[in-house]
């Protein structure tokens, strides 16, 4: 992550350079979203941008089901993996820990308050399930993800784009772009 934020590879093991980059990121961004607190992050984002719940309703795609997660963690302990990653990605862990702590200490209390956050997260999750999804069993192959242990959804009419596999969505966008090119420029596109 630090490389993505512009820290040169030669500085990835220099604590002073890492700390300086963390301070720069903190100064330049009003909110850093935390993946394992994705719903909370979206709600904070909603508040900062004056959005509605409709703007942040979402589905997790390419997410493993519970049984699959259990199988993976049965073979390797979380702490063993975390320790190895912490050593290998020391700077990224410094970045993560700084913003994870700030997320709970500053962002949530200042922007929302803990009680309001809990209520809003519950509302967002309920809204997602009631407005987008019919059932858990997938009848249509365009919603069945590439691997059987990934969660898929059957969507409510009008919300189909939310749950499509990436390749199906990309193909739909390409087809639409081709149609528009043909209409606008009156050209033929070779397959």
From TrEMBL:
<protein>
    <submittedName>
        <fullName>Galactosylceramide sulfotransferaselike</fullName>
    </submittedName>
</protein>
<dbReference type="GO" id="GO:0001733">
    <property type="term" value="F:galactosylceramide sulfotransferase activity"/>
</dbReference>
<keyword id="KW-0812">Transmembrane</keyword>
<dbReference type="Pfam" id="PF06990">
    <property type="entry name" value="Gal-3-0_sulfotr"/>
</dbReference>
<dbReference type="InterPro" id="IPR027417">
    <property type="entry name" value="P-loop_NTPase"/>
</dbReference>
<keyword id="KW-0472">Membrane</keyword>
<keyword id="KW-0333">Golgi apparatus</keyword>
<dbReference type="GO" id="GO:0009247">
    <property type="term" value="P:glycolipid biosynthetic process"/>
</dbReference>
<dbReference type="GO" id="GO:0000139">
    <property type="term" value="C:Golgi membrane"/>
</dbReference>
<comment type="similarity">
    <text>Belongs to the galactose-3-O-sulfotransferase family.</text>
</comment>
<keyword id="KW-1133">Transmembrane helix</keyword>
<keyword id="KW-0325">Glycoprotein</keyword>
<keyword id="KW-0808">Transferase</keyword>
<keyword id="KW-0735">Signal-anchor</keyword>
<dbReference type="InterPro" id="IPR009729">
    <property type="entry name" value="Gal-3-0_sulfotransfrase"/>
</dbReference>
């Amino acid at each position: 992550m630090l490389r993505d934020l512009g820290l040169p590879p030669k500085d990835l093991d220099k604590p002073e350079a890492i700390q300086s980059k963390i301070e720069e990121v903190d100064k330049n961004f009003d909110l850093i979203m935390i993946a394992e607190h994705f719903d909370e992050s979206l709600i904070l984002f909603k508040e900062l941008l004056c959005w509605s719940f409709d703007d942040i309703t979402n589905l997790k795609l390419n997410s493993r089901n519970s049984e699959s997660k259990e199988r993976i963690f049965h073979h390797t302990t979380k702490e063993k993996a975390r320790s190895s990653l912490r050593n290998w990605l020391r700077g990224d862990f410094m970045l993560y820990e700084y913003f994870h702590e700030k997320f709970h200490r500053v962002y949530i209390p200042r922007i929302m308050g803990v009680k309001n956050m809990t209520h809003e997260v519950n509302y967002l999750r309920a809204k997602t399930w009631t407005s987008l999804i019919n059932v858990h069993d997938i009848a249509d192959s365009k919603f069945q993800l590439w691997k059987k242990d990934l969660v898929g959804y059957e969507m409510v009419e009008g919300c189909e784009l939310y749950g499509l596999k990436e390749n199906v969505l990309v193909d739909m966008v390409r087809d639409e772009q081709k149609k528009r090119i043909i209409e606008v420029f009156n050209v033929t596109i070779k397959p």
